[in-house]
Amino acid sequence: MSESMREILKKVERGEWTPEQAEEYLRGAPPPEEDTPPAAGEVLESPAEADVRLNRWRWWWLIPLGIGGFILIVGIALITLGYAASSPFWFVCGFFPLFSGLLVTLLAIWSRGARWLHLRVREKGKAQVALSFPVPILLGKWFFMLFGGVIPGLRDQPGVAESMPEMLDAFSKSREPLIVEVNDGDTEVRVYLV
Q: Tell me: the pLDDT tens digits for 146-156?
């Protein structure tokens, strides 16, 4: 088998060409355009391209860290100002930003190792919705262990409620990203759990 024939078969196997396009090419027609629509179930991007895009989102924990650090510095400055001016008002006022900045900073450090949910919704002619936040999977496991039997939809299916904590535990130990992309004409929804 010639090298060109192998290349044609590889293109058909990867879904770049249909068998009919390959047959027409072998009969002397010009090569089909590479911008053919993807076949059903075809992966639209390579894993390397997906990893590059997902790695960009792994650094989102730095945003709340910066905000928490700024609030923490403001609290420290107010406490220092109150101490230097011997004013109990500014000294006491500094504790609220100090503790809230410390809380935001600690949550940001926790979110560094947490799984992040990124939701992107685009509709033609409308505003884009983009949400990103860390997901406390262990808290979800605890929630299903305590309340799984009383949730109306899960109450009728006891096997699902019982298996949910093990499923969430396995998901928290796995570092593989979960990617769901749905394109329905005018609406495109992308969910990434990184």
A: 877 777 776 67
Q: Cα–Cα distance between 123 and 114 in angstroms, integer?
A: 29
Q: The tokens 């100002």 sit on which residue?
A: 81
Which 8-state DSSP code applies to residue 179?
E
- pTM metric for this prediction: 0.52
Q: Taking a C-beta distance cutoff of 8 angstroms, is the pair 192, 54 a contact? A: yes
Q: Which residue matches tokens 């749905």? A: 182
**Contact present, 119 and 190 (Cβ < 8 Å):** yes
Asked whether the CA dihedral 129, 184, 193, 170 is positive or negative, the reply is positive
Render pLDDT for 100-121 as a digit per residue (tens, 0 to 9): 999 999 988 887 877 777 788 8
Per-residue pLDDT of 12-71, as tens digits, reads: 877 778 887 888 878 877 776 654 444 444 444 555 555 566 666 667 788 889 999 999
DSSP 17: S
Exposed / middle / buried, residue 17 (Cβ in 10 Å: 0-12, 13-18, 19+)? buried
In angstroms, the CA 153 to CA 139 distance is 20
Q: Is 89 exposed, middle or buried (CB count within 10 Å of its CB: 0-12, 13-18, 19+)?
A: exposed
Q: Do residues 137 and 171 touch, judged by C-beta distance below 8 A?
A: yes
